[in-house]
Amino acid sequence: MTAGANQLQDYARRIEELAVRLGLDFYPVDFELVPDNFMTEIAVYGLPVRMPHWSFGIRYIHQLIQQGMGHSRIFEVMFPGDPCHAYLVNGNSLPENTLVVAHVLGHADFAKNNHLFRKFMEMAGGHILEQAAARAHAIEMALERHGQEKVEAVLDAALALEPHIDVQSELHRSASAAMPRRSEPTAPGIAALVAASSGDDFRRRYHQLPGETMQLALEPMTPRSPSSATPLEEYDLLWFIAKHAPDMAGWERDIFLAVREESFYFYPVFACQIMNEGWASYWHARLLREADFLPQDLYLSAIKAHSDVVRPYAAERQLALSINPYHLGFSMWEYIIEKQGLEAARRICREEDDFGFIRNYLDAELARKLDLFVYATHTEGDIRVASRDIHAIREAILAPKFNYGAPRIAVTGIEQDGSLELTHDHRSDGSGLDMARADRVLEYIARVWRRPVNLHTVDERGYARDISSKRKYM
């Protein structure tokens, strides 16, 4: 372990002790130093080891372009759980990684105490890394058994529907068990800072994870006939297809349920992003400020990194046309604590998600202070302020977060010929569909439903459209 890594480990231990004295209550955190290219893979795949799919490769290239242009830099990736897992770039400076350690402890406190994180962790378990690695291994076995074309067709459909879950329902629904529920592997909970000597060593360690021997069902299940008692409105598309698709094999159903379980795990991260990043930023600033054991020059460098993270705009631009969740969340928590005190902030942290946080605690005074507004792009290409009304600002911030950021689409029936009927509830999500994308997703679904799939929707201009999968299956 290098001198810098030893120093970071010492600072991490002392910052953790300070966090406990200040009242933070968090799951143990396993910190890991990893190479920059591996960090990029984690950020793109969403997990250190995950089921393989071509779409992740496209995202990886996009991320490299963004980083090369200076538009994106990854300081850390943290996975909530018991323990939490946090990854730091080993090429970052000591001040940057010291700040990241403090930031992660704020995330760990949020994950343990926020009601939404607690609810979904109870359902999905606290060992996502081990579970995801086991699924990836099982899918590799399916690839060997069934071939890339068949497995990729199932992954295409499942990942295209990744956000289409019903977050109001339970993960393990009583009628949905296509395969028995598997026991969760056990992971050690000792907080430590480990410097990986290379990416290859890091990868090899994941081949030893508990659950590596988990297998997807490799034999076809008994074909299911379409149900005449189909629910009139079922928004959990992944669950419905895994349960009702007439001719899916067991391993195909397992892939759908695996993607669904990961989607449940990630939902609180999506639904609480502004709160969570703001809470972590508030606490990393406070922890660094009160960490009198840090050298002055390190503290100043870390605070410079903090300023870069929580500023509202990029580079030298003085006007931001998109929300930086770090800046908005940090500003709101500072404002709440100043006006109402830390205990009130802790209560809000426990009880709210971003919807309640923004609607209840972003007021007109703070919006003016932060210079928030709603803008519109005109046909000539110019951008103008459309509104500074606080209600319009709140809803503009929250609009992309509605329904996991996806169109609200429900299964509304199965016809006598087995055709699957889908209906887009465009009134509730307030937008039409991109027809080209909708066509592609319908084709993906039809490959696994193996019957025609029909979607009733509106296009981007609001005109009613009915589209159907083009492939013939009957």
TrEMBL record:
InterPro entries: Spore_V_R, SpoVR-like_C, SpoVR_N. Pfam families: SpoVR (PF04293), SpoVR_C (PF24755). It comes from the Bacteria. Residues 407-460 form the SpoVR-like C-terminal domain. Residues 6-398 form the SpoVR protein-like N-terminal domain. This is Stage V sporulation protein R. It comes from Noviherbaspirillum sedimenti. The lineage of its organism: Bacteria, Pseudomonadati, Pseudomonadota, Betaproteobacteria, Burkholderiales.
